[in-house]
């Protein structure tokens, strides 16, 4: 049996949820181009599409609103949040609280109908968003119907342009094939474990710096420079030293990351102050240098971190927002794996004595 480190290039399962990297540069959710979805849909509809192949977010928004309201009035959850936030970083807080919320009795059914799937996913999504919003300095308890998930994350005073920008970001984060966290979710699902356990597996995997966190490192890099000229000079020096520049290249896309241009456009649109405009110029200079020196393109994380920075999120919340977007994708893969009902159990190549 041929061995491939990290399972690179190995087909580990079948899915009808998404295609990633076709022709080197495309992304689609159940046959719908993901980039087009940012233009003609919202995250609620896309979440429903990914979970149940229906581009209608009515049920998702209804369930999300219901559970967000319940969670917002859960005093025991607030006490747990206060305790865990004192000791743990945000990703660990999310993992812990999602686990604490546990499973709903509906999962005791042998088969889940479409409404169950959407409701279960919306409940976990609402939990994740509530946790992230608890870190905001201003209140985030007013849900806007069209951009319901984005509005649960941003402060009440946020304008519609910011809601739309974050909604696009969540859509682009929603699903991405058999990446590490999704595969971890499917492994857990393959044992016939519950949805919450599978999502927690995904959260724990996304926490690793080789999967989540690239947007944080890219933003730290961009904001460490004072000018585009300084950035160009320092990036070239880093490349000479063989240092890795976060936010460039991709394990699946070969010519470009189709998500990057959407995010870049929002950064340009939302950059207003001199400092914000300067950061954008620095980012473009790094982008150009990486193309000229290494022929590498920016992935969604490079400009993604800057966008989240412009939306006033703390850097430590960038990966948690990734969780908020990806929960729908993880859930969809959980349900698909349960329907396939095949235990994932690869072989290992023994290298001992």
TL;DR of this structure?
The protein has 353 residues and is an all-alpha fold. The chain has helices at 34-40, 43-52, 58-72, 75-87, 90-101, 114-133, 148-153, 160-173, 180-190, 195-206, 214-223, 228-240, 258-270, 274-294, 300-310, 318-340, and strands at 18-20, 27-29, 32-33.
> Which structural class should the secondary elements be placed in?
mainly alpha
**N-C termini distance:** 20 Å
- C-alpha Rg (nearest Å): 20 Å
Q: Major β-sheet, in short?
A: 3 strands, antiparallel
The pLDDT mean sits at 92
Oligomeric state: single chain
The named CATH superfamily of the largest domain: Citrate Synthase, domain 1
Overall geometric form: globular
* Overall CATH class of the largest domain: Mainly Alpha
Compute the number of structural domains.
2
Number of helices: 16
β-strand percent reads: under 5%
Q: Please tally the β strands and state the result.
A: 3
Describe the structure.
The protein is globular and about 55 Å long. With 353 residues, the chain is mainly α. The longest helix has 23 residues, at 318-340. A three-stranded antiparallel β-sheet has the order 1-2-3. Helices cover 60% and strands 2% of the residues. Residues 106-110 have low confidence and may be disordered. It has two domains: 33-208 and 317-340, Citrate Synthase, domain 1; 214-310, Cytochrome p450-Terp, domain 2, CATH 1.10.230.10. α2 (43-52) runs parallel beside α16 and α13 runs parallel beside α15. The two termini are 20 Å apart. The protein contains 16 helices and three strands.
